[in-house]
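Hi R.,

Here's the chain you asked about this morning:
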Amino acid sequence: MAANKEAVKQEENVKPTPVPFTVGFNRSQSESIVYGSLILGILFAVIGIVGNLPLLALAALAPLAIAFWHYPMIEKGKPQLGANEDGLYVERIGFIDWAAIRMTDVKRTSVRNIELVRLDVLLTRSLDDAVTKAQTFPVWKKFMMRNWKRTPREHGRELIAINLHTLAADPEEILSPHPSPSSLSEISRPRHQAGPQFIGRRPNQACSS
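And the predicted structure, written out as tokens:
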């Protein structure tokens, strides 16, 4: 009997290892925006310069800015979301400690018959304190589109909202199976283990620091 209790106690304290995965943007969603805006901007610039039309040349800045803003969505080899034993990886953040994740929740909305899916990650502390391995990136990327946003909450907590519908995998393939597809707040896991378990059924590659 004592042996059985000890075995159960050891099982409860076993820390599950998340299956490593990474997933990037779905490039097909934004190729037309980026390349179309780039071509239009170059066309405006060339016609404006050749035709001595300064206003038209100046107007080229608008489509070029749109192409610049959306460029991360077609950039190759840049995972946007991932997970491994180091934590939850988010591009331009780095690895968020599993123990710093208080709750996760999946939000689904529809706009003009297009389903928008978002993963809300509520932290137990500020994002700066929750990151175990910060990611470094070029300064100019601060002015480009990112796939998440942060919102301060009470008691020094922060909420990180991550878009899933923009990624090159179905949200159900990214997140662990759960009886309620609209919420991950009750993911089954052993006691003493903070944070959800993420499973990549179609992994691209393991996250690296």
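The longest strand covers residues 101-111.

Let me know if you need anything else.
M.
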